[in-house]
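Input/output pair, single chain:
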Amino acid sequence: MISHILYDLDGVVVNSPKHRFSETLAKDYGASYKDDMLPFFEGVFQDCLIGKADLKASLKPCLSRWRWPGGIDELLQYWFAQYSSLNEPLLEHVDTMRKRGMSCFLVTDNEAHRTAHAWNELDLRLHFDGIFSSASVGHKKSSREFWMAVWRGLAMTHSRKNAVLCFDDDQNNVKAADEFGFSAKLYTDFASYRAVMEQIAGAIPH
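Output:
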């Protein structure tokens, strides 16, 4: 019997924008994505994602190079606004699952500020029981350590791992969760998600 459902944030609960923030910023303000922005995202930002560096502090040296005219907080507002379109049909289904007694959590590869923004400013706290981020866990979802931390955080170490259902739009994360023992499914769109949920309806509380 399924007792917990885990949902990826970006690409599942939050609709993916047509262009990444870095590409949009480069286009809007004239910075070079390859020369000015890519070194940040391939470098210190990776430490931000696992909680080893703070995003605001790490961005300070980038403002002039990225040709950003404002401050750090304004940059984050510009950045996070591009990832604020919610998958409303999915959220409605999540609400239904919770009313039926299912525990639903978010799992995301995100740094602390973006995680807090999604939870508080996008009001995802109203739809989910909690959130596990790579920044708080200290590992990304492609690693076994991430899913172990989630399992412990769910206080399920004495339960069957396959009682946890997980949806993610990244096959590497699906593979890692599946190899850990969770029942992991690749999310492509809401219609296919509903089809999966209908197939396993007998394993979900009514």
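DSSP finds eleven helices and five strands in the chain. The beta strands are 4-8, 103-108, 130-133, 164-168, 183-186.
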